[in-house]
TrEMBL record:
Xref: InterPro entries: RGS (IPR016137), RGS_sf (IPR036305), RGS_subdom1/3 (IPR024066), RGS_subdomain_2 (IPR044926)
Keyword terms, alphabetized: Signal transduction inhibitor
Residues covered by the RGS domain: 86-202
One BP term from GO: negative regulation of signal transduction
Protein name: RGS18 protein
One Pfam family here: RGS
Lineage start: Eukaryota, Metazoa, Chordata, Craniata, Vertebrata
Top-level taxon of the source organism: Eukaryota
Amino acid sequence: MENPLLLFPQLNISASKDKSYYKVMKPTIKEEPHKASKSGAKQKRNRLSLLLQKPEFHENDHHGKAGNLAKAASVSPEEAVKWGESFDNLLSEKAGLDAFTKFLKTEFSEENIEFWIACEDYKKSKTAHELLPKAKTIFETFIQKDAPKEVNLDFHTKEVTSHNIHQPLITTFDAAQNTVYRLMEQDSYPRFLRSDPYLSLVKGRNPSRPTLRRRSRSFTVNDFQGVRPDFTVW
């Protein structure tokens, strides 16, 4: 049998070998970007996992849970008792204000305390130049019709406030703030004093562990008007 190279001089065996080698190596070359992509995805997952572990990422996750209304480690029973002596005492303490704000969030009425806080900040304005932008923000957020956090005001108070907003003064929101204050004092505040987390603070227990209490009759707002809680029975 004759040598095939003599019969087919144009046949290039080395080229054929190169082609075969290319076919073998080709999948390996294609895998590199795929590996890089998988590596990048893994890194992203790792970064996301680290982010989810950060406390600040979850700070709003449990606002609706009654067990997170306050931290027993930072509030003594004596301090909690003072919160029950008057609504002013509760709001004047940062821990009390925070606890009450979280309680209102469980009732989906946090716009009331947020409005009250905004008015307190507004009254601290040092120049007339600061009043207009602050007044506009407060009005658009809490008072105007269909505002994102509209508070419950009577018609007269809303009309007067809306009229005064064009030339705002330090006292522009006083009537509206007083109305919302009375609403919280007579409605939300008594319920806060009856809440399990508050009662746990008074007793010096961790509010994250709800306590079992004997069921009592439902109280109305009128039951609490002019009445001071008697903490000696707790």
